[in-house]
Amino acid sequence: MEKFANTEMRIPPCDKSWDSLEDVVSRRRDRMTLTKDEQLVLRQWGRFLDNGLARVKFISRLYKHLIGNCNFIAFYDKDGFYSYYFRSGGAAVCEFLSRFDLRGATRVDYWLRGDRGEVNRAMVSIAEPYLDSLMGEAMERQRKSDLIDARRLLQGANPDLLRKIEAEFGPLEEV
C-alpha cells in the first residue's frame, strides 16, 4: 500500500493557502478537468517519492512533466536528468527536492502558476511528507562522500595532517 494513497492531497494555490484536490477539480470542471495524464503524473510522482527516488519509478511521463512544467533543465534525456540529480551526490538531490519545498526560502515559483500550476502545486503537496527524510538521507550520503574524499586526499598529500585530524576528531569514515 502506498503511503500517499491514504492521505488527503492538499494543493497550495499561488497565495500559499491550501485547497484540497477535490476543490481544485471542482473549480476546473467548468474550464477543464484534471487530464488522465495529469492524474498519472501525480500518481507516479507519489510512487517515485514513496520508493526513495528509485530509478525504476522514474518514468518518461514524470520526466517530461518535470522538464516541461516544473522549470527543470532536461540534461539531454531522462537518463542524464536522473544521473545529474540522483546519482551525482546528496547535494544534487537536495537541489532537486528543494524546488518542492515551500517552507522558508523565497524562490522563483512561476511554475506553480499557469496552465499546469494546480498540478505542480499538487506535486508540492505530495512531496511535503517526504522532504525531510529524503533530504536528510541525501545530506548524510553527501557528508560520508565528502569525508571519504577528504581522507583520500589527505592520505596521499599529507598523511601527518590526516593522523592529527583523526587523533583530534576520530577516524574519517571509509565505505
Mean pLDDT: 80
Number of domains: 1
Tell me the β content.
Answer: under 5%
Principal-axis shape:
elongated
Q: What is the terminal separation in angstroms?
A: 33 Å
Short description:
The chain is mainly α and 175 residues long. The chain contains seven helices and two strands.
SSE diagram, text form:
Blueprint: E1 10-11, E2 19-20, H1 21-28, H2 36-50, H3 60-69, H4 78-87, H5 90-98, H6 117-157, H7 159-169
Antiparallel strand pairs: 1-2
Helix pairs in contact: 2-6, 4-5, 5-6, 6-7
Overview of the molecule:
Strands 1-2 form a two-stranded antiparallel sheet. Residues 1-17 have low confidence and may be disordered. The chain is elongated, with a radius of gyration of 20 Å. Helices cover 59% and strands 2% of the residues. By secondary structure, the chain is mainly alpha-helical.
Keywords summarizing the entry:
175 residues, 2% strand, 59% helix, 7 helices, disordered N terminus
